[in-house]
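Sample entry was shown:
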Amino acid sequence: MRTWQSRLWKGLACTVLVATAALPAATAWAADAKLIEAAKQEGEVHYIDALIQPKTHALLERAFRQKYGLPDSFKVTHTLRGTGEVVASVQQEIKAGQHTYDLVSVGAPGFFKAAAKDGHFLPYVPTEWPRYAAAVKRGGVEVDPPNWIAPVAYAFVPVWNKKCPGFANVQITSWKDMLNPAFRGKAIIGDVRKSFTYAATWAGMEAALGKDFLPKYVELTQPVIVFRTEESLQKVMSCEYPIQLWQLSGRVYQRAQEDKTLDLGVAAPSEGLVLLGVPMAILKGAKHPNAAKLFTEFFLSDEGMTAFITGEGVFTFREGFRVPAAVKKYTPDVSTVKAMPVNWATFTIPEVRKVQNEFRKVLKVD
């Protein structure tokens, strides 16, 4: 285990344990007793996603056991893969009719729409969903209960390193502030060619800011293209490229929790953000359907959100949720964020490819 991960885990674990210990005993038994017992009988749940880091999974597992009094023998298995790998793995299992995973959660609404249409999800609406539905609608995030829901979201935001030469006084309050020739040769842009979520962000920004904004940004800054957010953030931290157009605020939060000497600027531009919902569904034919239902109930509960947001630092649509102060510095309460609308119903694979080809043309790459 890397040192920074170990120290981060210890700090987060203490936060979550204190929070859950303070909850009334009655809250821990909010789920139906029959569902809890049925889940215990199944003895295991396995979920796959593209976001939750191993340390956050450990927080979730511990809080899940504590909430429902699950025995030590109850297994909570997590598989972390890239977005495309998650979709491919689940599609293969659906095709084969042999399920390893009970739950799938990944930012690929097209996959969820297609799978729901073909009847591959077990219909289920968690009892806590009404606490999310209104905020999800305000955020312009697509959902289809009882087939699939999206209780959380993330967004790509501008990030810069204030310790790098010339960046100490940089202030970004508008996307237009990124149109700065002083950033020429010092900026990063995500690789739209390889990412549905980058493509959706490009499309949302283009609709809100005009078709000339991104070409002008590219012309003025001549950004380098980097796909992985971990790699691009490292380049910002090392001052190799001090500023990037798109980064996950949650990743910045995680690094800042580990290294208090970091001084990274994170913006939520006034024109808004493209909120990228993270759909979640139970697979029909899953080996542990009751355990999957119980884990979904837990994830949407206050305890589940506390563990998840404390670990990942992304947006939650849970009404009334108190975002921890350490998280709020990087990822504000979603109610304070203006959402850039994306017409998800028409953002099909051909549309994604159209955006990717536009990116190639603007960036002058193959």
Observations:
- Confidence is low (pLDDT under 50) at residues 1-30.
- The first helix runs from residue 3 to 21.
- The two ends are 38 Å apart (CA to CA).
